[in-house]
Amino acid sequence: MGEPQAVEQQGKTSSKIKLGTVLLIIGIIFIGANLRAPLTSVGPLVPVIRDNLGISNAAAGTLTTVPLLAFALLSPFAPRLSRRFGVELTLFVSLIALTAGIVLRSSGGVGVLFAGTVLLGLAIAIGNVLMPGLIKQHFAQRIGVMTGVYAVSMNLCGAVASGLSVPLAMSAGFGWTGALGIWAVLSLSAVLFWLPQLGRQKKAAGAAGKSQSTRLWRSRLAWQVTLFMGLQSLIFYTVIAWLPDILQQKGLDAESAGWMLSFMQFAILPFTFIVPVLAGRMQSQRGMAAVTAALFIAGLAGILSGGSLLLPLWILMIGIAAGSAFSLCMMFFSLRTQSTQEAAELSGMAQSFGYLLAAVGPVLFGWLHDVTHGWTIPLLMLIAASALIFVLGLSVGKKKFV
């Protein structure tokens, strides 16, 4: 009798483990879905928001840069919060804050617009930093696959949100407040799906975490990963901000230029899954990093050349490179560290610097354009950043630890 009971009990335990894993995967997908959509939904609506609230172009422009600065500000502190309160609870509270930020931002006034933007930026920063460590903790043997699932969810929902903003505001009659506020439904869903994870709450050792953090900031490899993250962020956000203007001045109409930007974003998607899966199976990622940098250089050089016949090819190359570079960064946080907390610390360090560069990049690019009255020098700046990614990739792609 004892043996059948033991087998039955083992079966129940196995079922609970499988259910717990499924719920965790669903939770990760929903968190990923919320880390870009609240941001990408704003850009297409900036002119509408500006005209409706009567704010300046400069003030309207900060709606897209404020979250990046919030990322840079909070990212180094997110691992400390997870050490103190546990990663599951920290993510849960951040999702609640994200929902509150989305609702606040879409309430209709200038003050709440910016207050909500800051709040949701801080909330997203926590998710950005802690997710690589969470994946390393629960899926140590499937880091590549789960990083791919998480990245696809993030970028797919980001692309969809960007495309739906204007139709929701105009055609569906939601207005800009409704078009931005509707994403609170997605974040609230993430809150509900993350509730089961509070039962497996664990806290990291505080003293050990502080020691890891101090050592990390002295690590040459950690700084190389950080610079890799920063440069790819600079290129991506600068291209997102300026590509339509560049293409219009090279002869495309506004609608065609917009479609080219959408084409680039959708080109990113398959590679945010393919690259982590391949990288997770390789001993070295140097070749992948080199190819990624080469694609950036080729695509940017193609746009610089001015030819329109091969323009879709140049845009495709930049999209593939952007998806690959981002995914490699997410993988390096796990592959170049030896513990969950160390992965979170490296993620926080790299993303803080990375998003600071991302906020500076479009401004510097625009300033160079104003000074030189052309696109050659600004694009050469991005090509130089791509060349640095190539050099850094040869080092961070080696199998070693911070």
Would you give an account of this structure?
- This protein is mostly helical and 402 residues long.
- The chain folds into two domains: 1-204, Growth Hormone, Chain: A (Up-down Bundle); 206-402, MFS general substrate transporter like domains (Growth Hormone, Chain: A), CATH 1.20.1250.20.
- It contains 17 helices and no strands.
- It has helices at 2-33, 37-40, 46-53, 57-74, 78-85, 87-105, 110-138, 143-171, 175-181, 183-194, 206-216, 220-249, 254-281, 286-305, 311-335, 340-372, 376-396.
- Helix 1 packs across helix 8.
- The N and C termini lie far apart (53 Å).
- The model has no long low-confidence stretch (mean pLDDT 89).
List the helices and strands and how they pair.
Blueprint lengths: L1 H32 L3 H4 L5 H8 L3 H18 L3 H8 L1 H19 L4 H29 L4 H29 L3 H7 L1 H12 L11 H11 L3 H30 L4 H28 L4 H20 L5 H25 L4 H33 L3 H21 L6
Helix pairs in contact: 1-8, 1-10, 3-4, 4-7, 4-16, 5-6, 5-16, 6-7, 6-10, 7-15, 7-16, 8-9, 8-13, 8-15, 11-16, 12-13, 12-15, 12-16, 12-17, 13-15, 14-15, 14-17, 15-16, 16-17
GO molecular function, one term: transmembrane transporter activity
Pfam families: MFS_1
Membrane topology: Multi-pass membrane protein
